[in-house]
Amino acid sequence: MLYGFLSKIFNFFHLLKGHLIAFTYYFTLHIFFRKLGSNCCFQSFLRFGYVFRNIQVGNNCYFGIGLLLNCGSGSHIIIGDNVSINDYTFISSLYNVEIGDNTRIGEFVSIRDNDHSFTDSDVLIRLQGFSGKPIKIGSDVWIGRGVFIGKGVEIGDGAVIGANSVVTKSIPPFAVAVGSPAKVIKYRIKQDNKCLTAQ
Ligand SMILES: CC(C)(COP(=O)(O)OP(=O)(O)OC[C@H]1O[C@@H](n2cnc3c(N)ncnc32)[C@H](O)[C@@H]1OP(=O)(O)O)[C@@H](O)C(=O)NCCC(=O)NCCS
User: Fold this and answer.
1) What are 54-74's pLDDT values in tens digits?
2) Ligand 1, residues 108, 145, 148, 185: which to mutate, most atoms within 8 A of Cβ?
3) Partner residues linked to 41 by β-bridges
């Protein structure tokens, strides 16, 4: 009984905190977000690499704790409706990152559309700038915890990426891909009541 009561109080303040954070972002719109849809839920304040950048978020999105959204000048981060991004996920966009509706992203995921350039061994890596390509993640994608998604990757609608995978090449729609580097092991589309096995 006491446990239930305390749990209700805790939940109340937790909910209140979430609303206050959301209110802060709606109130300060255009400082942190170009667009923030309705009914978004924040477990804590996000970290932003920069302010006044083009970050667009749809409706009913969930953001866990410790998230970093790093959006460079001239690029965008577009997040669709009903997207869930779990704790300690980093999104770094210098060339554009797009995430489709209803996509689930686990904790400790790193989505980076850019790498340090390192071709010149006579120059410090930190002085060589960045190179990269846009990342596009489709709708209804499930990305497991600890996944890395690198520059130029497109992940098709309905794909599943296994935990701790390193995705360096594009993944087709409805594929299940696992490992480092991530390889397609099967497809979710049913045929004769069986998943298709990757060739
Ligand atoms: C990929 C996943 C969804 C399993 O899918 P599944 O269809 O049930 O696949 P299975 O468990 O049958 O595994 C198929 C094969 O892939 C391998 N595999 C599964 N997940 C893997 C992973 N993350 N990395 C490497 N290999 C993996 C299995 O070992 C198995 O290999 P085998 O055929 O040689 O025995 C699951 O393993 C996973 O990674 N879930 C993510 C969980 C998570 O991160 N949740 C938090 C975020 S919300």
Assistant:
1) 999 999 999 999 999 999 999
2) 185
3) 62
Report whether 149 contacts 109 (CB < 8 A). yes
Q: How far apart are alpha carbons 34 and 171 in whole angstroms? A: 29
Looking at the structure, tell me whether residues 9 and 83 fall in a common domain: no
- Structural domain harbouring 8: 1-29
More confident residue, 12 or 107: 107
**21 and 98 in a common domain:** no
Expressed in angstroms and rounded, the spacing between residue 105 Cα and the centre of ligand 1 is 15
Q: Which two tokens stand for residue 53?
A: 């950048």
Domain annotation covers residue 10: yes
Handedness of CA 180, 182, 183, 189 (dihedral sign): positive
